[in-house]
Every structure is written in C-alpha cells, then in structure tokens.
C-alpha cells in the first residue's frame, strides 16, 4: 500500500509511505521482504517511507510458516518534491522600458525530474495566462499605461506556485 500526495502525471509530490498487508489462510505468514531499486532484500517490520527524488521500483514477497514463497510483486513510483524554478530574463526588475508591446522573456527549469508542465504569468494580480515555450519562455504584454506602473507576477502551474515579483516602470 502506497500513500502520499499525488501530483500531475502520477508523480508523488511528497515522500511516499509504504506498508504491506499479507495473509495466508493455511499455515500463516512467516515474513515479508522488500527491495527498493535493486537493493538488498529487507525484512519488513512496519511502515517505511521513500523520500528520494526520481523513479523507484519496489519489490516484495512473503513466505509462510510451511516454507512456501509467493511470487515477487513489483510496483513503480516516481517522486518529485522540488518546485520548478524560474527567472524573468527581460526586462530586468525596475528597468524603464517603453513601447506599445513588450516581449517578456524568461527561463524555467524543474530539478525534481517530473518535467516542466507550463509557465504562466499574471499582470496586476489578474488571471493567469500561459506563456509560450517551456524552459525558454516568452509572453507578449501590452501595458495599460493608464495606471503608470504595472506589476508582473510570474509562477508555475506545476507544484505549488512560487511567486517572483517584478515591477516594470512604464514611462
């Protein structure tokens, strides 16, 4: 039995708690063993946790009091607890820029392994709008000069949004 916080595409966003329930209706269960990622077989003595980032394979089998072993069961799981990272590469924070439209550019990455789902931007706390691209992204923005100063907020759809705040001074 696996439990944890499920994210997109079947990835866990937290450590995964593992437990086994075994039964034998004849002689009784003697022991249950497990192996993680090809490691040594370990006697199961109670719930344990897997927290390492990436893809994992968990194997298990049990023996009964008569000496019989069941077939090895296998389950695959993937863990990504690291939030993606992003920066706005143009314009730089506080930069005075002009023009009817500004192409905002940035770079994004995901260190946890599940991959970058998308990049979204929000202007003045408004709706989140998907930017073009992924690791190298852009968004064409038309400032509303009636307000003088515009604020650009940028975050990710994948994982808990991490907000990076930039203020663009519109002349």
- Helix percent reads under 10%
Terminal CA distance reads: 59 Å
The total count of helices amounts to 0
Strand order, sheet with most strands:
4-3-6-7
Main sheet? 4 strands, antiparallel
Number of E-state strands: 15
Unreliable stretches (pLDDT < 50, length at least 5) are: 155-167
Question: What structural class should be given to the helix and strand makeup?
Answer: mainly beta
Overall pLDDT score: 83
List keywords for this structure.
171 residues, 4-stranded antiparallel beta sheet, mainly beta, 46% strand, 15 strands
Layout of helices and strands, plus pairs?
Layout: E1 2-3, E2 16-18, E3 29-36, E4 42-43, E5 48-50, E6 54-64, E7 73-79, E8 85-90, E9 102-109, E10 119-123, E11 129-130, E12 132-133, E13 136-141, E14 149-156, E15 164-169
Antiparallel strand pairs: 1-2, 2-5, 3-4, 3-6, 6-7, 8-9, 9-13, 10-11, 10-14, 12-13, 14-15
Explain this structure to me?
0% of the residues lie in helices and 46% in strands. It has 171 residues and is mainly beta. Strand 14 (149-156) and strand 15 form a beta hairpin. The chain starts with a strand and ends with a strand.
Summarize the structure.
With 171 residues, this protein is mainly β. The protein has strands at residues 2-3, 16-18, 29-36, 42-43, 48-50, 54-64, 73-79, 85-90, 102-109, 119-123, 129-130, 132-133, 136-141, 149-156, 164-169.
């Amino acid at each position: 039995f696996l439990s944890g916080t499920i994210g997109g595409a079947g990835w866990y966003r937290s450590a995964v708690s593992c437990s086994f329930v075994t039964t034998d209706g004849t002689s009784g269960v003697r022991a249950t063993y497990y192996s993680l990622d090809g490691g040594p077989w370990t006697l199961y003595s109670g719930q344990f946790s897997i927290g390492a980032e990436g893809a994992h394979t968990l194997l298990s089998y049990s023996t009964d009091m008569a000496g019989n072993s069941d077939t090895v069961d296998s389950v695959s799981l993937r863990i990504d607890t690291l939030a993606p990272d992003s920066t706005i590469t143009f314009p730089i924070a506080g930069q005075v820029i002009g023009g009817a439209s500004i192409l905002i550019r940035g770079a994004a990455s995901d260190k946890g392994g599940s991959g970058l789902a998308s990049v979204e931007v929000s202007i003045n706390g408004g709706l989140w709008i998907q930017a073009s691209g992924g690791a190298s992204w852009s968004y064409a923005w038309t400032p509303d000069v009636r307000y003088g100063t515009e604020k650009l907020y940028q975050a990710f759809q994948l994982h808990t949004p991490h907000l990076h705040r930039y203020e663009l001074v519109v002349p």
